[in-house]
Amino acid sequence: MPTPQRTALYGAGSIAALIAIFYIWAWITLHWSYSTGERAGFMQKFSNKGWVCKTWEGELSLVALPGAAPEKFIFSVRDDSVATHINQLIGQRVSLTYAQHKAVPSSCFGETEYFVTDIKAIQP
After folding, report:
1. What is the pTM of this model?
2. How does residue 40 score in pLDDT terms, banded at 50, 70 and 90?
3. Which of 24-33, 52-61, 92-101 has the lowest mean pLDDT?
4. CA dist list (Å): 46 to 12, 32, 59, 85
5. Residue pair 45/61 in contact by the 8 Å Cβ criterion
6. What confidence tens digit (pLDDT) does each residue in 56-89 have?
7. Separation between Cα atoms, residue 53 and residue 108, nearest integer Å
8. Distance (Å, rounded) from C-alpha 60 to C-alpha 40?
């Protein structure tokens, strides 16, 4: 029969193992991308959202053909310097460089699986 000290040790070990698994999973999903690419369109919306975990979330309006209904590209930003640059380009035609990270374990890292890493203004 296990002693109370041994039971407490098993409980603490189990909690530590769960925390370690969460940390490792988060690190893997945030550092290895599923895909990378660029999208071009008009920077439509960008805000710092969240109750506890504040994240930068944005919307890029993709227009394929004149007169066609625009498609929206929803994305997150983790880097504050990129967020500052995006805020300066609201309403302009831009090109976003992004990395797609699937199965990120919490919305504290971003609400979407698309994380923007760079932005460039497109000259008309």
Report:
1. 0.79
2. very high
3. 24-33
4. 42, 25, 6, 11
5. no
6. 999 999 977 777 777 999 999 999 999 999 999 9
7. 5
8. 8
DSSP state of 91: T
Tokens of 63: 């227009």
Token pair, residue 118, equals 């760079």
User: How far, CA to CA in Å, does 32 sit from each of 10, 22, 24, 65?
Assistant: 33, 16, 12, 34
Q: Count H helices and E strands in the chain, helices first.
A: 2, 5
Where helices occur in 1-101 by DSSP H, the ranges are: 4-31, 80-88
CATH topology for the 34-121 domain: OB fold (Dihydrolipoamide Acetyltransferase, E2P) (2.40.50)
Q: How many CB atoms lie within 10 A of CB 16?
A: 10
Q: Which residues are CB-neighbours of 30 under 8 A, at least 6 positions away?
A: 101, 104, 109
Evaluate whether 72 touches 59 at the Cβ level (below 8 Å).
yes
